[in-house]
Each structure stands twice: as structure tokens, then as C-alpha cells.
Specification:
Elements: E1 23-28, H1 33-43, E2 50-56, H2 62-69, E3 73-76, H3 85-98, E4 103-106, H4 115-120, E5 125-129, H5 141-148, E6 152-159, E7 169-176, H6 183-206, E8 210-213, E9 216-219, E10 222-223, E11 229-231, H7 233-239
Helix pairs in contact: 1-6
Active site: 129
Pathway: Purine metabolism; IMP biosynthesis via de novo pathway; N(2)-formyl-N(1)-(5-phospho-D-ribosyl)glycinamide from N(1)-(5-phospho-D-ribosyl)glycinamide (10-formyl THF route): step 1/1
Region (Disordered): 223-245
Length: 245
């Protein structure tokens, strides 16, 4: 573990003050594997809140089935039925607000949000990105990392701002690249880390520990460094029971 103060063996020792159940809306476009990780934590009362709706811009997104199987309201809002990005986001705002969320989680939502949408929910919206931000913003992160010959890659949970993949980072998990690493093997390792840290960050937010203020992200009232809290490769591998090779 890095020296940022994160301790993997105390992830779930914090007990929040009793409060009304915090409400979460998840936005998806596809398979929804990160959604499933959140659903699994919720099923074991470890999420710190309740996923009240899953909204997809793609009618055939498998994540909608995951939501229905878990008894969660699954909503389809096809973007192709709207004449502009702003018109779609205006409709999306109405659908989201109908569920009165405390937090909006982007879990593979493959649309660039308008400033109007971002500002409406600023400070209440998290995304996960498959790189150690600020490195490799945008697409094809694994291929780019391999092409550059980096020794470490990973994923980042960050607050959503108007800058694409540029909001303050809350939590990261690193993966050390093997000598024979391929894009497929790297993608699998990063996905496993996404499923590990996204529920943690969501829980921290719902407990009030993780917040976005005027000066950036804070954890337990203290400002976070630019890379947020960092889970090392070794600690992530231990949590995931990965075999050392």
C-alpha cells in the first residue's frame, strides 16, 4: 500500500451514524459488470445505501437484466429518440430526479454528459475509468499503456466534472504489468480492480466520508492528493486472491 493513508484491512470497520437509507441511481450502456459488483455489495448490506434505479440509453443493455433480476427499477431512455445531446440530457435529468438520488454512479455509461447535466448533479456523481488518472484519459487505455511500455496501470474512481475523465480522483487501484502482458490479460486485471474499488468509493460517499468541495475531493474531511487514495498492486492482488506469477 502507498503512503496515502489507505489501509485495506480497515475497509469496512467504519460505522456511520444511523440515517435514512441513501439512494443511488446507476447509469449504464452495456454489460453492467460494475453494476453487478454494486448489487452484490448491496445484497450483503455492505453498500451503505440502496440502488433505486438503473437507467440505460441502450435498450438491449445486459445491465438492465441484472437490475431486474435484483428487483431494481430498470429504465430505458434511448438517446436515439432525441434530436440533440442537450435534449436527451434534459430528459435524463427528469428521469434521474424522479428517483431522488443522493448519488449517481456512472457504470459504463458511454455518453459524454452536457455541462447542464454535470452542473445539476455536481458533487453527487462518480465515474470509474480504466487507467491511473490523469494518465490515459479517453478510450483504448490498455492498448495505449502497453504501447508506452509502462510498468504500472490500473483504474480510478473520480468525481464527474465538465472535463472528460478530469474530475478529482477519489480512489485508485494499481496493477503491475507482467513481462508477457497482453491487452486481454491487462483488461481482465483492471476489471477485477474496478469491481473491488468502486463499491468501496460508493460506500464512502454514502457514509459522508468522501466528498467534493470547492478545493477538490476530501476523505474524512482531509484533502486528497491528486491521485486520490491508492491501493497498491500487492494489496489489490491480495484482496482478489490473485496468484503471483
Amino acid at each position: 500500500m502507498s503512503d496515502t493513508g489507505y489501509q485495506s484491512d480497515t475497509l469496512r470497520e467504519f460505522t456511520p451514524e444511523p440515517a435514512d437509507t441513501r439512494r443511488v441511481v446507476v447509469l449504464i450502456s452495456g454489460n453492467g459488470s460494475n453494476l453487478q459488483a454494486l448489487i452484490d455489495e448491496q445484497a450483503h448490506d455492505r453498500l451503505g445505501g440502496e440502488i433505486v434505479a438503473v437507467i440505460s440509453n441502450e435498450p438491449d443493455a445486459y445491465g438492465l437484466r441484472r437490475a431486474r433480476d435484483a428487483g431494481i427499477d430498470a429504465v430505458v431512455l434511448p438517446h436515439r429518440e432525441y434530436e440533440s445531446r442537450d435534449a436527451y440530457d434534459g430528459a435524463l435529468i427528469k428521469v434521474v430526479e424522479r428517483h431522488e438520488p443522493d448519488l449517481i454512479v456512472l457504470a459504463g455509461f458511454m455518453r459524454i454528459l452536457t455541462p447542464r447535466f454535470v452542473q445539476r448533479f455536481l458533487g453527487r456523481m462518480l465515474n470509474i475509468h480504466p487507467s491511473l488518472l490523469p494518465a490515459y484519459q479517453g478510450l483504448n487505455t490498455h492498448a495505449r499503456a502497453l504501447a508506452d511500455g509502462v510498468t504500472e496501470h490500473g483504474c480510478s474512481v473520480h468525481f464527474v466534472t465538465e472535463e472528460l475523465d478530469g474530475g478529482p480522483v477519489a480512489l485508485q487501484a494499481a496493477v503491475a504489468l507482467a513481462d508477457d502482458e497482453t491487452e486481454a490479460s491487462l483488461k481482465e486485471k483492471v476489471h477485477a480492480r474496478e469491481h473491488l474499488i468502486y463499491p468501496i468509493a460508493v460506500k464512502w460517499f454514502l457514509e459522508g466520508r468522501l466528498q467534493l468541495g470547492a478545493e477538490g475531493a476530501t476523505f474524512d474531511g482531509l484533502p486528497l492528493p491528486p491521485e486520490g487514495l491508492r491501493m497498491s498492486h500487492a494489496d489489490a492482488a491480495e484482496e482478489l486472491d490473485e496468484d503471483d506469477e
